[in-house]
Design a protein that fits this description.
Blueprint: H1 6-10, H2 18-32, H3 41-57, H4 60-69, H5 90-94, H6 96-103, E1 125-131, H7 133-138, E2 140-151, E3 167-168, E4 177-182, E5 185-190, E6 199-200, E7 213-224, E8 233-236, E9 252-258, E10 264-267, E11 270-278, H8 279-284, E12 286-292, E13 295-301, E14 310-313, E15 329-336, H9 343-358, H10 365-379
Parallel strand pairs: 1-9, 11-15
Antiparallel strand pairs: 2-7, 3-6, 4-5, 8-9, 10-11, 12-13, 14-15
Helix pairs in contact: 2-3
C-alpha cells in the first residue's frame, strides 16, 4: 500500500512551521494513543503513521530530502535523501563520487583523505521511553541500557585471527575505492573487495568475523528536564553506532512518550480535569478540593454554577521546558445527579422543585429562556 503524504497525515501545509508540525502531531498522538484505544487496530496504525510523519518532518535534513524527493528521499532502500543516519549519505553520497570527479570535491557524509578509505559517520540510535505525567512535569533521572560495541578480546580489535595479519587490499591498493570508466566519465566506486576499508583480511577473526568489535550493552544516565512534552527527544552525543573506517560515531536520541493520566489531560503547558460536584454545591456554592500535580487545593465554587462551567487556576499547570513559565489548570464542572434516593429524599426534592418553579425565571433563567424559544418556534 502506498504511503500517504506526511503533510497530509499531520493535516498541515508544506509551509507549516516547526511549532505547527509539532502541535499537529501532539494532537494526533493524544487522539490515537494505544492507551486510549486499547482495542482499536485502526487507531494503532494511525498513531504509528503520525509518529513516522513527525519523525521525518521534525528533522531539517529529512524534511528537506522529503520535500525534494518525496518518500524516496527518506527511504533508506531507495538510495535517496537522508532517510536515517547509518544508511550512508543518501542521494548526495550516492552521487558524490561522480560530482567529486567532475568538480574536484567530495559530497555527502562520507569523506576521503588523500585518496584513502572513505569514512562514514555512524548511525543514530533511537530509544523510546514512556514516563508518567508527574515525571514529565517535575523532571526525571533514570538509567537506560543501550547497544554498545567493545573491542574484540580475541583479535584485540584487528579483525584478523591471531597469528595472521591485515593486508592492504590488492584490488584498490588501500584507497578503498576503484575507478570505473563509463563513456566520457571516470567514476569512483567503493571497492567491491574491501567494501571501502582499504584493507583485506585473509583470515578473519572467528569471534568477531573480521569486525574487530563485539556488540554488547552499556548503561547510560538520562536526565529528563522538567516540562518535557510528548514526542520531544533528548540527544546523547556520540552514543550511537560507531563510525565506519574511522568516522565519528552517531548520536543516541531518547524519544519521550507520556502515559495517559487518570485525572489530567495535557495541552501544551496547560492541564485540564473534570470535576464532579453535587447539585446542592452548584446551587448554593461551597468550597471543594481540586486536584493539582502539587496536591489538592481549596477552591470556592460560586453560587449558581452551571454544568459545563470552566474555572481557570493560574500557574497550576506545567512549567514549560522552553518558556520557563507555568501553564494553567482548567477545571471543568460536571454536576452529578444523585441516585438511589430514599422515598423521603424524593419527597424533599419534589417539594424543592415545586418551590423553584413557583419562582419562575428568577430561579431557572436558562429553563425559562429555553421555554420562550420553544413558544416562539411553534408560534412562528
Amino acid at each position: 500500500m502506498a504511503k500517504r503524504d506526511y503533510y497530509e497525515v499531520l493535516g498541515v501545509g508544506k509551509n507549516a512551521s516547526d511549532d505547527e508540525i509539532k502541535k499537529a502531531y501532539r494532537k494526533l498522538a493524544m487522539k490515537y494513543h494505544p492507551d486510549r484505544n486499547p482495542d482499536s487496530k485502526e487507531a494503532e496504525e494511525k498513531f504509528k503513521e503520525a509518529k513516522e510523519a513527525y519523525e521525518m518532518l521534525s528533522e531539517p535534513e529529512k524534511k528537506a530530502a522529503y520535500d525534494q524527493y518525496g518518500h524516496a528521499g527518506v527511504d533508506p532502500n531507495a538510495g535517496f535523501g537522508a532517510g536515517g543516519a547509518g544508511f550512508g549519505g543518501g542521494f548526495a553520497e550516492a552521487f558524490g563520487d561522480i560530482f567529486g570527479d567532475i568538480f574536484g570535491q567530495a559530497q555527502g557524509q562520507g569523506g576521503r583523505r588523500g585518496g584513502g578509505p572513505q569514512m562514514y559517520r555512524g548511525a543514530d540510535l533511537r530509544y523510546s521511553m514512556e514516563i508518567t505525567l508527574e515525571q514529565a512535569a517535575n523532571g526525571y533521572d533514570t538509567q537506560i541500557r543501550v547497544p554498545h560495541w567493545d573491542e574484540c578480546d580475541h583479535c584485540h580489535g584487528k579483525g584478523a585471527e591471531p597469528g595472521s595479519s591485515v593486508e592492504t587490499c590488492p584490488t584498490c591498493h588501500g584507497a578503498g575505492q576503484v575507478r570505473v570508466s563509463q563513456g566520457f566519465f571516470t567514476m569512483q566506486q567503493t571497492c567491491p573487495k574491501c567494501h571501502g576499508s582499504g584493507k583485506y583480511i585473509p583470515k578473519p577473526c572467528t569471534k568477531c568475523h573480521g569486525q574487530g568489535k563485539l556488540k554488547s550493552q552499556k548503561t547510560l544516565e538520562v536526565k529528563i528536564p522538567a516540562g518535557i512534552d510528548e514526542g520531544m527527544r533528548i540527544r546523547s552525543s556520540g552514543n550511537g553506532e560507531p563510525g565506519i573506517n574511522g568516522g565519528p560515531p552517531g548520536d543516541l536520541y531518547v524519544e519521550i512518550h507520556i502515559k495517559q493520566h487518570p485525572v489530567f489531560e495535557r495541552d501544551g503547558d496547560d492541564l485540564h480535569c473534570q470535576m464532579p460536584i453535587s447539585f446542592a454545591t452548584a446551587a448554593i456554592g461551597g468550597d471543594i478540593e481540586v486536584p493539582t500535580l502539587g496536591g489538592r487545593v481549596a477552591f470556592p465554587v460560586p453560587e449558581g454554577t452551571q454544568a459545563g462551567k470552566t474555572f481557570r487556576l493560574r500557574g497550576k499547570g506545567i512549567k514549560g521546558v522552553r518558556s520557563g513559565y507555568a501553564g494553567d489548570l482548567y477545571v471543568h464542572i460536571n454536576i452529578e445527579t444523585p441516585v438511589k434516593l430514599t422515598e423521603h429524599q424524593k419527597d424533599l426534592l419534589k417539594q424543592f422543585d415545586k418551590s423553584v418553579h413557583e419562582g419562575g425565571s428568577r430561579h431557572s433563567p436558562q429553563e425559562q429562556t429555553w421555554m420562550d424559544k420553544v413558544k416562539n418556534f411553534f408560534s412562528s
